[in-house]
Amino acid sequence: MSALVLGHKNPDTDSIIAALAATHLLLARGFDVEACAQGEPAPETAFVLERFNLTAPKIVKEVADRDVWLVDYSDLAQAPEDFSKCRLQGIFDHHKLGDVTSDTPLECWIQPVGCSNTILKMVCDYYNVAIPADLAGAMLCAILSDTVLFKSPTCTQMDKDAALALAKIAGVEDINALGMEMFKAKSNLNASPRDLIFRDFKDFDMGGNKIGIGQLEIISLDMISADLKDALNKELAAVKAEGRHSAILVLTDIMKEGSEVLVASDDASKVLAALGANGNDAWLPGVMSRKKQVVPPLQQAFKA
Ligand code: MG
Ligand code: MG
Ligand code: MG
Q: How many angstroms is it from 253 CA to the middle of ligand 2?
């Protein structure tokens, strides 16, 4: 049976396109692999797949007895429930080192850059594997998405170089226009409050506390009405009540380059203080990255 190349739960564009890119790379190197995802593409990813004529990876939620490659995560909390029963073969990722482990030596490509697809471009170059134009366009979009058009503090020179090289392969002349088109698709708020919270949501273990953090990146927070914010706060309380210490929703304004946080928590003041926020709904200027600006201060505050 083919090995599975699998991104994280609540897949974002990077995790889905990285599964396609890693599959392309590994097939070229002679591995028997297939791209998978733990869920349906979100609106942004659906736009990218359609724009570049790619098919969404097949959905897989069980990995027992399978060989597995991970893309865009290495945390058990973001893996399928039966992950301990699979055989981990390798990781392509750009997050903090997680808690998965392996029984045999494995291939690991983890770099502190803005996007997993930046790493995949680097590894394709390393193995001299050519990238088809459509895949290159989608990889470019993944970089634009994860780095929020190069504006996120997670963005590095390597991401910019990879994006330019991929744009060239894909024949994309106006990178910014493509990015804006993609973020317009991403700003689609036409979904239930629950779906909006879980569109890009990750659970973390922080000092023994389960803390879930969702992020919605939209072109302007003015698109979120007072009613919608109320509904999001209400649903967030329900999400917290499902066995979490805290449920947090980071509302990021791409154009203003900052975020507002909504918090439902056993200790909201601790969460807000860690994030440097004054009260709920506080505006956090310059905060765009969950990975770099939201998770680390919370992890620090909840360290046992
Ligand atoms: Mg991701
Ligand atoms: Mg990523
Ligand atoms: Mg992201």
A: 19
Does 257 lie in the same domain as 172? no
- Give the pLDDT confidence of 5-56 residue by residue, as tens digits: 999 999 999 999 999 999 999 999 999 999 999 999 999 999 999 999 999 9
279 backbone φψ class: left, alpha, beta (φ>0; ψ -120 to 50) = left
Spatial distance between the Cα atoms of 82 and 304, rounded to a whole number of angstroms = 27
The pLDDT, as a whole number, for residue 280 is: 63
Residue 92 Cα to ligand 3 middle (Å): 16
DSSP state, residue 149: T
Largest CA distance in the chain: 54
Ligand 1 centroid – CA 67 distance (Å):
21
Q: How far is the CA of 16 from the centre of ligand 2 (A)?
A: 10
Give ∠ CA 275-277-283 in degrees, rounded to 5.
Answer: 110
The predicted-structure confidence for 23-33, as pLDDT tens digits, reads as follows 999 999 999 99
Claim to verify: residue 132 and residue 180 sit in the same structural domain: yes
Tokens of 265: 């928590």
Q: Please give the model's pTM, rounded to 2 decimal places.
A: 0.89
pLDDT of residue 281: 65
CA of 227 to the centre of ligand 2 (A): 31
Q: Can you give the CATH number for the domain in which 268 is found? A: 3.10.310.20
Give the model confidence (pLDDT) of 145-191 as tens digits: 999 999 999 999 999 999 999 999 999 999 999 999 999 999 999 99
- In this structure, are 55 and 130 located in the same domain? yes
